[in-house]
Every structure is written in C-alpha cells, then in structure tokens.
Amino acid sequence: MNQKQMFINGQWLSAESGQTRTIINPFNQQVIAEVAEGNEKDTQYAIDAARQAFDKGDWRHTPALERGKLVSKIAELIERDKQELAELETLDTGKTLTESIADMEDIAEVFRYYGGLADKDGGEVIESPIPDSRSKVVREPVGVCGQITPWNYPLLQAAWKIAPALAAGNTLIIKPSEITPLTTIKVTELIEEAGVPAGVANLILGSGAKTGQMLAESHLVDLISFTGGIETGRKVMTAASSNFKKIALELGGKNPNIVFDDAEFDTAVDQAMNAIFFHSGQVCSAGARLLVQETIHDEFVAALVERTKQIKLGNGFEDTTQSGPLISEEHREKVENYVTIGINEGAELEIGGKRPKGADLQQGFFFEPTIFTNCHTSMRIVQEETFGPILTIERFETEEQAIQLANDSKYGLAGAVWTKDIRKAERVSSELRMGTVWINDFHPYFAQAPWGGYKSSGIGRELGKLGLEEYTEVKHVFENTNPQPLQWF
Ligand SMILES: NC(=O)c1ccc[n+]([C@@H]2O[C@H](COP(=O)([O-])OP(=O)(O)OC[C@H]3O[C@@H](n4cnc5c(N)ncnc54)[C@H](O)[C@@H]3O)[C@@H](O)[C@H]2O)c1
Ligand SMILES: C[N+](C)(C)CC=O
Questions:
Q1: Ligand 2 centre from 284 Cα, in Å?
Q2: Ligand 1 pocket, residue 277 CB under 6 Å
C-alpha cells in the first residue's frame, strides 16, 4: 500500500523519522491507508515554510480578486472529485455515503462562498476629527495560521478554515485528526492542482500532542484555529498564550432541543430523532438533551422509542443504512461508560445502552441508539458531551423552566425550540445563551451564516463574513496631509 504523505513547501514528503500510521475503516477495522506520521521536526519545517511564504512570498500581495479565483477553482475541483472524496470520507469515518456526499457539496459551497467574498471588503474611510488628514481602516491577513481539525466532519471542518484563510491572503498549516486524514490529504492535492503557490498551504500529519501542540505553541504562528474537544481546546488556548497569537476555538456542545406541547407532534418527533442519532450522535451540535413539556412527555417518549427500534445500523456504503459505527473502540468504550454513569445516577434506560448483536456489525464499533428518561441537570449524562447516540430526556412545565433548564450548562453551542406560537419561539430564542438557535428545525448550517459557541463552546466564529474576518487583522492608517513641526520640545 502506497504511503500517503505530508505536503510542505510544495513537496510531498514522508515523515523525517520514517514513521507511518495505519488508518482503519471503523465499520470493519480493515486497513484503508498508511500515512506519514509527522513529529515536531516535520511541524517545524512546515511552520518555517509557511512563515517564509507569508513574509517573503507574493501571496498576501496577490490581488484579492485573484486569490478569490483560486479559492473558487478549488471549489470546482472538489465538485469534480465529489464522489471520490465522499467515498474516502465514508471509509475513514463510517458515516453514510449520503451524508458524505452532502458534506462534499457543503464543502464546495464554502470554497465558492469565500472565493466570492475575497475581494468584497475594500476597507473603510473614516471621517477624521483632525484637520488636514485622511483616515482609513483596512483589513490585512493575519499571517501564518495553524489549523487543527477533529475526526467527525474531517473535511468539512478543514474547509471552514482553509477557504477563508486563503481568501484573506494568509499562509497555513492544516493538521487533520490523526484518525481521519484521508480527505484532507486529497483536498491538499486539489489545492496544489489549483495552483496555490508553494509554502502557502501546508499539510502536516501526526498526533495532536506532537504536531498540533507545536502549532499552538510556536512563536512563528500568528493564529491558531482549533476545532475539537473542550479539554484539548484548553491546552491549545494555554499554548497559544506563548506569543498571544489570535485564537479561534470551536469546541463541544450539549445542545437542548425544547419541545412545547403545541409543536407539530410528528415533525418534532422525527426531527428529535435526527437531532441526536444523525452520524451516531457524533456531532458537536447534536440535540443530545431533549426537553419535553410535561403534558406531552409520555406520548413523545413512546413515539421516540418506537422509532428508535427501527434504526438500521450498518455499512455506510449500503443504501439501507441509516447510521454507521462510532469512530473507534476507545470512543465506544467512552460512550458505553456514560450508559453506566446514567444508570448509576438514576436515569431510566428506555432503549439501547449496549453493543448491537447483529453478526454483520461485530467487526465495527457499533453502539445501539440509546434513550434515557427521568433525567435532571444535576446528572453528568445531561451535562457532559457523550458524543455518541445517547439521548437524555428532561421534563418541563413552563416556558421559564424550559429556558432555565436549557441554559443550565457550561456549553452554549446550539439549541432548538419547537412550537406553533412564533412569539413564544422568539421569546425563548432570545433567552437562550447559544451561538445558534433553530426554530422548528434542527441542524441547518450553511456557508453564509456564522457558526460558533457561547460560553465554553468556543471563541470566535467560522463561516459567514465573520469567518473571513477571523483571518484578518484590522489596521488604521492615518495620513497627515499637511505635516508641520509641533514645537513641543
Ligand atoms: N464546535 C464545532 O463546530 C465542532 C465541530 C466538530 C467537532 N467539535 C468537537 O470536537 C470533538 C470531537 O473531536 P476530537 O475527538 O477529534 O477532538 P480532540 O480534541 O480529541 O482532537 C481534535 C484535534 O486536536 C488535536 N490535538 C490533540 N491534542 C492536541 C494538543 N495537545 N494540542 C493541539 N492539538 C491537539 C487532535 O490530533 C485533533 O486533530 C467534540 O468535542 C466535538 O464537539 C466541535
Ligand atoms: C459544525 N458541524 C455541525 C458541521 C459539525 C459538528 O460536529
């Protein structure tokens, strides 16, 4: 099997140590690739290349229109290779091919969007209060950007970082999760094919502790953009303080899905299923906390349990599969442990809570879709991100109680409210301390709207205009048009 390499300064390279890592398919544990396993030396090489390309290269001086065209060209190449990319993503993550294809379409759209946005901000003229002067505010690229991504949406999360960074004129080093690097490697080939100059976009592969940590610590890196778990985010933030680099953190969530008794019942049930069980719950914004109004609680739970029995787990490449495996044995053990925690805390297990028995599922890291009732905000299974197919259900009586329960969390990534009373929906929405609130829906995100979290769910925003601004520094340029001696000294 050919080794997949890193891309540094326009060259495909093996690790300096010669080490490789084996990548497996979580559906059946078969080996799907051997990839270079970089370490601190390789990371330093990539940082130096990106630094040189930013400081001495032409990229940041290339007209924004031209940079935008290149970013749009990458979008076209992703469209062209959509099927191959989607298949790689399904092999690497176990998610269904339908999901992977949808991800690739979103990803192409993100590159198209930032390609188009690249030249739209021409700066701002300020009315200066000082006579004989001119004042303007311009945005410039931040510099060298370290970018670290997780395994659950490997290429999507990379796209949210790479596209705006390039559009704004930065150079970058992307480090995908060591578990799921394949689509990021492939897209780096497309970035090369599009004609992005050497040293501008670099790819480093390896463990977070050796490569990601170094990106976060390095004094030669100007910005670190991280998507991942809260504890890793804390390490990244601490390391980033070494030179006070700019930070953007997209962290976890434990997202409330609030259903009032006047909601359209069948739709709310259907979407509550999707909110939690999509991609086996391995979604930062999964609706893992369901809050149901007392008056419909029992009926709602019964409908959910009935629907959950019918979920078809399996191979992401089969049309009938609705949900794939978890990403790894280690992650499955973590999810399994949360079931034990929930039971010990007094939650009632309604369905699931164990590994499935099907013969065709034994080689994969499968876990049954699980529902707990009788849950309270004092419980760890309600407060902590299990990042698996575990739904906790809480009851509420009043609107005020629903808001209070929903906000009783260290996280603030996303939430939803279901009701036919739009004034109630807007009241609740305005009280929720979250970066995204969906009304009568769950999960939509798109290139034009910002994404990010309140509270411990992160710092900064990706997507939308704000997602481009994250990759810029603001400079005020003041010009005295009639300079005179001050004669102060
Ligand atoms: N807010 C969002 O938009 C969003 C999106 C996707 C995933 N997530 C979160 O990501 C998490 C799941 O992903 P994960 O398990 O890959 O997260 P993780 O924190 O374990 O790893 C994320 C990345 O950080 C790297 N890393 C590990 N240690 C590091 C260190 N010391 N310094 C720098 N980098 C290091 C890893 O190699 C990986 O590339 C969940 O918490 C999920 O909510 C958030
Ligand atoms: C941000 N999102 C929803 C695409 C992936 C979260 O894990």
A1: 5
A2: no
Place of tokens 């390896």: 206
**Model pLDDT for residues 319-350, shown as the tens digit of each residue:** 999 999 999 999 999 999 999 999 999 999 99
Domains of the chain: 2-251+457-476 (3.40.605.10), 256-439 (3.40.309.10)
Confidence category of residue 2, pLDDT binned at 50, 70, 90? confident
Please check whether residue 421 is in contact with residue 398, taking contact to mean a CB–CB distance below 8 angstroms: no
Q: Is 250 a catalytic residue?
A: yes
Cβ–ligand 2 distance for 177 under 6 Å, the answer no
d(CA 13, CA 262): 59
Tell me the three-class secondary structure of 62-123, residue by residue. CCHHHHHHHHHHHHHHHHHCHHHHHHHHHHHHCCCHHHHHHHHHHHHHHHHHHHHHCCCCCC
Give the per-residue pLDDT at 177.
98
Q: Which atom of ligand 2 is nearest to the CA of 156?
A: 4
Nearest CA to ligand 2 atom 6: 284
Give the global pTM. 0.98
- What ipTM describes this predicted complex? 0.98
Report the percentage of the chain scoring pLDDT > 70: 100
What is the amino acid identity at position 454?
Y
Q: Which of 160, 175, 284, 332 to mutate to test the pocket of ligand 1 (most atoms within 8 A of CB)?
A: 284
CA of 152 to the centre of ligand 2 (A): 8
463 lines ligand 2 (CB under 6 A): no
pLDDT of residue 222: 98
CA neighbor of 113 nearest in space, from 450, 389, 422 = 450
Identify the pLDDT of residue 187: 98
Choose the catalytic residue: 99, 250, 385, 399. Answer: 250
From the list 173, 176, 124, the residue with the least C-alpha distance to 150 is: 176
**Residue written as tokens 């004092």?**
378
Which ligand 2 atom lies nearest to the CA of residue 282? 7
